[in-house]
Every structure is written in structure tokens, then in C-alpha cells.
Amino acid sequence: MPVLPGGTARAVAFVSVVLLFLTGYVSVTELGDEVRARPNGEAMAQTAPAPVISSGVLSASWKDDAAHEDEPRSPLRLRFGDDLIRERVMAVSVMPGESVPVSIGNARSVEVTANAGEAVQGLGNQWLYHAPDKPGTARLTVRDTERDASLQLHIFVLKPWDHRGTSIEGYRIGRYQSEARGGLETYERPRGFVRVTETNRDVRVSPNFRLAQFLCKQQGGTTEFALLDTKLIQALEDVLAAVREKGHDAATLHVMSGFRTPFYNRAIGNTTIYSRHLYGDAADVFVDVDNDGRMDDLNRDGRVTEADARYLADIIESAAGEDGTFIGGLGTYGPASHRGPFVHLDFRGYTARW
């Protein structure tokens, strides 16, 4: 997805709108997470409507709308860039000044509003969102005016980083590998990071998860940064729904480890230089309905063992996968003296099991 500087982005925005009117735009763990890895149109109307532009500015405060835990899925189907959004609340990330295509596929009449950046309407339910020029947090709200349904995107405008040095604003990042593992796009160095503040750290990134659950446990410094991939959040929502269907009344999944900086990953003794935790699309999770800080007895055999982790892994395989197969890393871990069993999942781009 191209990243454009602010002034250039606004110039391109005008050209983009013209093109939209002519053609429309298409939808367009700790140790072990690398072990035993194996690779594995209908024509649009010719008459374009007048452009509708919704814009705003980044504000110091963040308004977190009411939760939708009971009905996490939205009747709307929205595509934001490459991400297909199904939940009523979902977090996405963009670079400053980036222009992202937005399409709503199953509504006849929608309103799109942005509290920061600009949302420009093209043909029908095709829009183009222009991110603010500065890092921060924005909100894009889509409303179906006929069905009184809505969907809200919490947009993290990332703090760019050129990978010179080993820290950002005094926060130790460490070093990412300059070469992507196996040439895979999923292993390219991050372009930027979410700047975590007291205002946004508790923001909902989906109906049942908050940003704070995925933050690095690294100590020190007054500033904090993070990464969080939309695919991971959506997968965890799917898994949580399946866990509940199995009779486990979990409010959320316990995220034992989410994002890690390369500095922190090395500090805890993990020698895996390509750990998916570094890229924001991995999580070590377990079910903890009784809030004792450990995995519950999911298979109801009277014990809490790795069998419960395998029980959860089977749910992940079917709930978060396509045709019963989860494309990514999936590993189970038994209990240790300082923790209970857990499951690691990630979106490395190929299938790995351990």
C-alpha cells in the first residue's frame, strides 16, 4: 500500500477522486514458535455522484463507544485496504498521509464519517480514506441508514521508523533483520509503530479485546510503542466465539504474550530472531474464565495439562482457519512451574505446527 507525504497525498486525492468517478476502485512465545516450520464484475454506473468528503482533526481525547460483546458481528461487510472487516469494532493501522480504499459490499445507502483525516466518496459505496499527516488515533464510522446498522474502525496512524538506531523517543526497540526471511513479505521490517498513550492503551481493538492486552511487557522509558495486526485480532474474535459455543463463558482470551520488541525478545532469552511476536501478528493465549491467571480445564478431565492446550488449538484450527486448516504458526505448550498451558498462533504466511 503506497505511503504518500501529506501535501502529495492531498494532490493525489483529487486525481484519485476523478479516477474513482470514471472507473470506481476495486476492492482492491516464547521459545518454539519457529520449530518444525514447513512452507506450505458487475459494471458500475456511468454517472458518478458528487463527491462527499468527511474530515476531521486528531483530538487529544479518545471516545470509546459502547461495546458490542453480545453481538460482535456487524451486518455490514467492509473492506479496508486488504482487510475484510466483519466485527462492529475493529482496529486497523495506516501510515501518516496514506490513502486507503474502503468499500462496503452489502448496503444500499451508507454514511461514512471520520473524526480525523478525510473520507472521500467515489461510485456507490466505494470510498477513499486519507489518513492524517501526523501519528495518532483516528476513528472511521460507517452507518447503514436503511438498517440502522453501524461499524466503527479504530485507526492507528503509525509513528514511522527508518530503522536507524535502536530506539524511538527513548523506547528501546532493538534491531529487526534487514532481510525478510525466505523473501516473504510477512517478514519485512515494520514501517512504523503504534504510539501507546494513556488515552489509547485501553481502546477496544475489537468487541472483546483491548490494545493493552497485546502490549510488550518491556519496562523502562516514559514512551511506549507497539504493533498489532488486524488479522490476528479477527482470528481471536473467531476463536473466542467458538470457545463460547463449546460452553466456556469467557469474556475474552487471556493474552500471555502479544507484541515484543526485538530488544525484549532477546532480553527474555529467546534466540528466535524472526519470532512473529516482533511483527505484531502473534499471540500466546489461553482460556481463563475463573481469572486465576492460568488455563482452565477445558476438556473437563479434572486436570490442567497440555491436553487443554491441544483442545484450544483444535478450536483455533477450525475457527480461525479456512476449510478447517489454519494458515500460520500454531503450537501447544504444557504447564511449567511459573505458568499453565497455552497456545501460540501467528500469521507468518505458511503452515507450521509444533
From TrEMBL:
Pfam families in the record: Peptidase_M15_3
Peptidase M15A C-terminal domain location, by residue?
208-305
Family annotation (Gene3D superfamilies): 3.30.1380.10
Query: Please, which domain of life does this record's source organism belong to?
Result: Bacteria
* Record's protein name: Peptidase M15A C-terminal domain-containing protein
Q: Which organism is it from?
A: Longibacter salinarum
